[in-house]
Amino acid sequence: MGQIKAVRGTRDLLPPETELWNHIEATARRVFARYAFGEIRTPIFEDTQLFARGVGEETDIVSKEMYTWEDRARAQSEKAQMLTLRPENTAGVVRAYIEHKLGDAGLLQKLYYIGPQFRRERPQKGRYRQFYQIGAEVIGPPSAGSESPLRDAEILEMLATLLEALSITGWTLELNSVGSATDRPRYIQALREALVDLAPTLCVDCQRRAVTNPLRVLDCKVPEDQAKIDELPKIADFLDEDSRAHFAQVCAALDACGVAYTVSPRLVRGLDYYTRTTFEFTHGGLGAQNALLGGGRYDGLSEAIGGPKAPGIGFAMGTDRLVLTLQAQQVALGESSAALLADAYIAPLGEAQQAESLVLARELRRAGLRVELGDGTFRLKKSFEMGNKLARRIVLFGEQEAVSGMVTVKDFQTGEQTKVPRGELAKMLGAQ
Ligand code: ATP
Ligand code: MG
User: Fold this and answer.
1) CATH number assigned to the domain comprising residue 53
2) Any idea which ligand is nearest the CA of 116?
3) Could you tell me where the DSSP H helices lie in 16-171?
């Protein structure tokens, strides 16, 4: 029998890398709390229709990347249901907003999520079939101010703060407005007209997009096409007075708090439901998959999936890509893995000391220390070898120590060996 491996595009996250994942997620939770966001956890799978309607049939996600299956009907009377592993989380959050009537209190809902998403894409560095996102949404009835440009600016400022808290430097915020539900059709019409002559000179994907979804042509990454695409009509020239003023206010608020951005006229994003503000944070260190996060405003999404009018704005950041960025930065800084070593390795010197050495480990751990516990059957030499790999210091705990109440501590870095009363051990090892 062949060896069973993790499915292509999925992977195991192992220590010590998971420390970094936890650090990123904990930092995000801390920052989101300061902006008064609460956590939402939606199901991993949903009715396929949610994504078909909420993300859009014409998007890459829905047309070719979803994991969809037919759930067997349990009874004859029951109809089989099409289900899909969530490829993104905004549609699920908005479904929950509608289902639980979260807008009825007349307040904004500020929700964040952390979890896996699934897309059948070609796996490569920074692109997986099970990947992870940290995202947030601000959604509510218009009377709660959900359309305000201040909400857009606040989210972008929060993201800049989060990246700073994570010590991620060197990012770029690309910002654009794709206009309202009435601006967009006029722009798409102009694009279609311009593409009649241009499309045949572009890549095959663009030739298809020119017909199915002309906005997607602006996403093209083929180098030879770039100059030609830059000549196409720009969305900025099709914005009505309201959209223009909205975007100007987002920019002014960002300027006021010193968040740098560049306006990218071609940034239209992959999801059909975006209106007005769209944005992406990119990072040069990521290579081809350079988007750290993306987001935008989705004023019509709730209505598109059968809910009340509930404008909103949100983002999703790729945790996998944050990890890659931080790993690259740490390598550049030459940071060692010493931080992951335990504070102490307790070596029981003989089986008779095992039970009491667990008590000692318990004392130290309760004092907040990171402790590795050895084994009483190990010879002294083996305990030292193991301890040296796992911890900064070794604590010898033999019969003599048990009787005298003094333990022997050796620091692997300095080579220094000392005897300390058991009661003072935690403090000596650095407990607060
Ligand atoms: P990309 O242009 O990289 O395909 P996208 O526009 O499809 O990104 P979104 O749907 O906006 O991405 O998702 C937000 C973020 O989630 C992206 O900026 C990226 O960091 C991350 N992401 C998206 N797809 C993947 C994937 N397959 N593997 C890892 N991260 C991903
Ligand atoms: Mg994509």
Assistant:
1) 3.30.930.10
2) 1
3) 17-34, 48-54, 60, 90-99, 149-165
The number of domains in the chain is 2
The verdict on the CB of residue 316 being under 6 Å from ligand 1 is: yes
- Is the same domain home to 266 and 363? no
Do 385 and 267 belong together in one domain? no
> pLDDT, tens digit, for every residue of 109-124?
999 999 999 999 999 9
Q: Is residue 411 part of a domain?
A: yes
User: What does 25-41 look like in DSSP terms, one character per residue?
Assistant: HHHHHHHHHHTT-EE--
Say yes or no: 294 and 386 in one domain: no
**Atom of ligand 1 at shortest range from CA of 219:** 2
Domain that holds residue 377: 343-428
pLDDT at residue 198, rounded to an integer: 93
Band of residue 271 on the pLDDT scale cut at 50, 70, 90? low
The preferred substitution site among 55, 293, 319, 323 for testing ligand 1, maximizing ligand atoms within 8 Å of CB, is: 293
Residue nearest to atom 2 of ligand 1 (CA): 291
Last residue of a domain, one of 273, 301, 333: 333
**pTM across the whole model:** 0.90
Regarding the beta carbon of 315 and ligand 1, being less than 6 Å apart is answered no
Contacts 24+ apart (CB under 8 A), 195-200: 195/232, 198/228, 198/231, 198/232
Q: Are residues 400 and 296 in the same domain?
A: no
The pLDDT of 349-372, averaged and rounded, is 95
Residue 243 has pLDDT above 60, yes or no: yes
* pLDDT, tens digit (0-9, with 9 covering 90-100), for 162-215: 999 999 999 999 999 999 888 888 999 999 999 999 999 999 989 998 988 898
Q: Name which of 207, 206, 208, 236 is nearest 218 in CA terms.
A: 206
Rounded to whole angstroms, how far apart are CA atoms 1 and 315? 44
Asked if pLDDT for residue 336 goes beyond 60, the answer is no
